[in-house]
Queue: 2 jobs
Job 1
Amino acid sequence: MTLHEYLKSAQFQAVQDEALREAAIRAAEKIRQNHAPVKRHQLHAIPSIIQGSGLTGLRDLAQKQKEKNSTTRNKEFWAAIDDLLSATSSSETSLFGFLQTLLLEQGFLEPEASAEKNTQKQIRKRNKTITEGVMDDILNVYFEHFNCHYFIKAQQGGSQ
Amino acid sequence: MSSFEIQAPLLSAKTLKSIDLFLEDYYPKASEAGEKISACRMDKTQVRGLENLIVSATRFSEVINYIKNQVGKEREKNKWKEVGPMLLSQLQDIEIKAGDIAGDNPMERLDVKLRLLRGWARQVVAHYLYKDRDEGRHA
């Protein structure tokens, strides 16, 4: 099965329905736990930017928002979103990390550790490109899970 | 329309029977949900909206997310707050049961989940309409 076929398969749809939802819920819970809650409109910006300009757009937005002269809670929230999307994040709730693990298990990425030292960097670059391509595809669903869980938690824990 | 090409597996007669048996057993709980939706005077259009989503959903989580989103809305007298936790808890029961019925096959599990979901929704909505009529709201 090619990567393209896998992304169109019911098997991947099941991943989006279960494993991706669990990953998004974990991330939303962690952000809610570690940072002060933000207003709903901060999250409302996410689906429209994904629709318009995908991963690049969302990364740009997160970068801008975290550097913007805004409230600390907003800055922290966007820094956490930026970290979720980052290829260099070491967080256990990183979306990039989740996808890399999945794609490696499915055989769509080359194992980096077992490769020769001089080719490791090239493999890492290829893997990053593949992972980011898949991330672009699933971003909408991921943030549907993330936002809805964040909203209900905000209601249960006192909204801002 | 989803861009996914769903290759839903053909479910065995045994699996289909397990789905029916669960829905039969679950009927009292589904009725309870319908009754609660009626008791909080949820508008019929809201219930029909949920039902339509369930019929057209290609992912089980679309429905979970819809309910979470409704519960999470900041508005006065949000009736979803009253019924949302119960509906989400029942959906969790359904998801667990789908895992028992379908096992590790993700495609079969998704298909079973959606069938259970649609059966459950028929029960909930039917009971809601029945109770609402009883109360004279949709006479």
Note: The mean pLDDT of chain B is 89.
Job 2
Amino acid sequence: MIDYKNVLTTCPYCGTGCALHLQVLDDKLVGVLPAKNHVVSEGGLCIKGWNAHAFVNHVDRLTKPLIRKNGKLEESTWDEALTLIAQKFGEIKAQNGPDSLAILTSAKCTNEENYLLQKFARAVIGTNNIDHCARL
Amino acid sequence: MSDRLTSLRETIEKILPDVDGVVALRTGPGGIVAPYLFTKEHPEELAKLALWPKEPVPDTLKIILHAHPDAKLAIVCRGCEERGIVEMFKHAQFSLDNVTLIGLQCEQSEVESCQCFKPFTVHAKLTVGQPVEGVRDPMMAKILAMSQPEKLAFWKEEFSHCIKCYGCRNICPQCFCNVCALEDETWVETGRLPMPNPSMYHMIRAMHMTAKCVGCHECEETCPSDIPMAVHFRLIARDVKEMFNYEPGASMEQKPPQLLVLEEGDYVRTGLPH
């Protein structure tokens, strides 16, 4: 059975919120189509939106966390990576205060994830240094 | 519109058991319409069959046929989409041996929305809806009334709004080259905005649309800067018709002039360009 469908989603690249369709053929992502009758983008996209499917299965995409050991990036587990981050953040905060850290969130996150990151910055780290890649 | 929708659904239901799938439009979440392959395994999806806004379905057909060259498919196509499919076929993008065309004739309101010159199918054996007359795009008369310097000023202004999204190329049913000149640094410099003006990007597109543009207006519809580029493709199409008596998509047999010149070295020149 041939399976072709378009999955409606929001462009991950900036805060505008253009709608796009991911074209899926036999469970494989094959391209992007704009969403014509969507109120935000009205069938238009920029060059990033048109290529929003490209990074999903890109060979350069990291699928495991990497930790630099002896000057070389090595594949690791999420447990090890997150433990290391927590430990280093703790050390930096103890030595230089919470404002020595900053959090840069992403348009690729959901609203809820961005909310959590500002909560993490303000309540856990204790800094107002929180910003977003779409404002760069 | 509901009558046309009902008879289209009945036409698809009738053909569905005999094919691997029917390419048509389906309403998705939030009422957003997109191309979809209806199959006999999921006939319930036909409840979400949609007619409008039109979508670039010739490309959907190409995507499916490239992965499944022997698939037996049907496709619901409007006049412009049928022309797009015929031109793709003539340029060896796919075979139409196992493809059934279901012609969907546009209604007056749709014709006016697209300013379409030929809003009906001519090849499809199965059709839905009554054909209506096409209209002449008023932009054509507006451009033709301009002097040469006025035209240059008009297009320079329009092309200065281009954000180089490549949407017009991506959505065009006739842009299918394996190597695209628009991705060649010689012609279109990456990372440069605004583009040099007059822009090679739009000049190359205009040249490449010669004897190919089927007038579906998908390029204009997807353009975030509302550049009325289809009108210059229509003006070039008028010249092609006069010079080579060729109308993209009108005939299954007549070869496009650019293929005749390459393959056979002879063509009938019927007039002079403007």
Note: The two ends of chain B are 41 Å apart (CA to CA).
